[in-house]
Amino acid sequence: xxxxxxxxxxxxxxxxxxxxxxxxxxxxxxxxxxxxxxxxxxxxxxxxxxxxxxxxxxxxxxxxxxxxxxxxxxxxxxxxxxxxxxxxxxxxxxxxxxxxxxxxxxxxxxxxxxxxxxxxxxxxxxxxxxxxxxxxxxxxxxxxxxxxxxxxxxxxxxxxxxxxxxxxxxxxxxxxxxxxxxxxxxxxxxxxxxxxxxxxxxxxxxxxxxxxxxxxxxxxxxxxxxxxxxxxxxxxxxxxxxxxxxxxxxxxxxxxxxxxxxxxxxxxxxxxxxxxxxxxxxxxxxxxxxxxxxxxxxxxxxxxxxxxxxxxxxxxxxxxxxxxxxxxxxxxxxxxxxxxxxxxxxxxxxxxxxxxxxxxxxxxxxxxxxxxxxxxxxxxxxxxxxxxxxxxxxxxxxxxxxxxxxxxxxxxxxxxxxxxxxxxxxxxxxxxxxxxxxxxxxxxxxxxxxxxxxxxxxxxxxxxxxxxxxxxxxxxxxxxxxxxxxxxxxxxxxxxxxxxxxxxxxxxxxxxxxxxxxxxxxxxxxxxxxxxxxxxxxxxxxxxxxxxxxxxxxxxxxxxxxxxxxxxxxxxxxxxxxxxxxxxxxxxxxxxxxxxxx
Length: 598
Fold this sequence. Notes:
- The protein is mainly β.
- Helix content is 0%, strand content 54%.
């Protein structure tokens, strides 16, 4: 089933609470004149999960978790309409690529609960790509502008991983591995329009090396740096492979490979480690550089200028998340006030706070980070009012824009909660209706609307973590929705953001509800975290033997049995999430222990 919302909007939750963490400030910076100003369009409610994509036509593909623990769904924006693209019969769908003509690649659960790669377009809808013979699941498809897909296939319950290439005419093709052993393993993760596929594979020595594959040359081991593990992130139009390699001593560095020059260690711009997050089609690499116990900082690399530390907005941390083919880089950085703000960087102008380039934004709007930019300069940014689209101002009147929900992050059960949102844009003197959904099953209620703002109030009867949504509609029926988390706690509760690190760029978002001290012996709390493509949920938060520490189990992206250990002390959050293999080995899913947290 596909759901279409006319001119709807989407939001990231403004996760604020009793803890003061990086990026949690609500104060809007003063607007200052700039070379380019941007109109803000809301893209709808929910927590983003995984990558965001925008093409030259202004199409956007992204995935969102609408509520705590709800299945991830994928949305497509065509410049006027938001559309839920549906699933393969299950409840989950996440985008992993977008073509220039608006095709989306991704993965979804089918009716049997298996993970399958898909392609979606507006004409034919969503289609299962099938699986290689002997496998039943397909993962992480990358797509080029000719509609060719690369990914990997597995058999549920088996450790075998097989890289595939898919075309509409020929279907699935196994592209081989670097080892011919019976337990050979390979996964394809990137592809360019010329058909060059990059991925990594187990070698005969059981290392995992990056490979390049072409129809003419087959699969080639491109890791010549003596590492035990390397993995590509992207392939440029001219065949440059960019990725990450783990070197002797445990350091990770970004690498670049071309057929002519081989694999090159790109260094770390004077730091210990560097990490590739993404790359433009023209070959500009973006990511972070960092050292043990230090904050991550944004970096970019090109063949012409080498690696460059982009600095910050005056604070101590930053991360570059995306670049276009015009030399523009976007991401997030800490400013002098210790606020995490979205930035735009160019070689000519350096790093600019995008919050200072907004054209008549709603009151209280703060852009946390920018995650995608098109060659025409349109930017997708994460904010305290959700994902928003920034388009250079054209001088025309647009849809109304709704700001963040202003409300307490943590409240006591039985206490009246007052909430408000601001409204900007649209036609002068326009009238609006506001409808509030409080996330506790009590239904939608109408609120009051004043000049440029809308208000509502509610009382939570029980402790819990809730998503409150405000839907603001004009008289023509155009609807914009924003949402945020509220923790109702009779014990300890918190919500906020923190710098993810060490090898996950940008911010992580969390909400936690610890059991009340009087009930610690039997009650359990809740924990929710989203960072990158990982969404962790637990309803099994229990106090550990050390004060301020909590442990428990939960799921990642709605599946599996994962463990966590969390410490909250002096305004800092330390969190580790891991799972165990069948052999009992520990695999870490998330750990911010190397990242300082204010």
